[in-house]
Amino acid sequence: KQEVTQIPAALSVPEGENLVLNCSFTDSAIYNLQWFRQDPGKGLTSLLLIQSSQREQTSGRLNASLDKSSGRSTLYIAASQPGDSATYLCAATSGSRLTFGEGTQLTVNP
Amino acid sequence: NAGVMQNPRHLVRRRGQEARLRCSPMKGHSHVYWYRQLPEEGLKFMVYLQKENIIDESGMPKERFSAEFPKEGPSILRIQQVVRGDSAAYFCASSPRAGDDEQYFGPGTRLTVT
Prior knowledge:
The complex is a heterodimer.
Chain A: E1 4-7, E2 10-14, E3 19-25, E4 32-38, E5 44-51, E6 56-59, E7 62-67, E8 72-77, E9 86-94, E10 97-100, E11 104-109
Parallel strand pairs in A: 2-11
Antiparallel strand pairs in A: 1-3, 3-8, 4-5, 4-9, 6-7, 7-8, 9-10, 9-11
Chain B: E1 5-7, E2 10-13, E3 19-24, E4 31-37, E5 43-50, E6 53-56, E7 65-68, E8 75-79, E9 88-95, E10 104-105, E11 109-113
Parallel strand pairs in B: 2-11
Antiparallel strand pairs in B: 1-3, 3-8, 4-5, 4-9, 5-6, 7-8, 9-10, 9-11
């Protein structure tokens, strides 16, 4: 059974800092790994998807890496902004389902 | 291409009533997934459907919950005789191909049971 863990559970940083969010998964037989953003009371916004054959994906100030052998993924956010404040979720795809972590609640202070 | 649509966005039901949540997948997508997010908890997989078929319902509660995806029309998640513990956000996702493809999420339906 796939289990996904995210560390830290919460993070508060001043504006402009570079930061890293961590995600680990127990079953390395994944098809892909997705990072999402969720604002309070809102739906999910897909940020990045890394296929199992890829090592990383980049979009703007975001960079996600994947190491299947160690069961880890990281989301790097450069030059953080207050608008980045949200909960960030990682999800591993195994078979027909996504298994989500509990999320990292990020607060970027102006 | 419109995204995944869910309605209603908010639904209030009294204990014992039925709740029907609807999901229209993106155009060209024939695979639908339902997830539930209980308060202060992560999202959990419930069920995976293709047109007219339930492929994987291993995440569905054994009683009161059912899902369908008919040949025509939206996918429906049905909760009979709702209880307070059913209060949650229910998200639908769709994909164009088999279960290992990227899933696109709808805005969710927030169910409140009073």
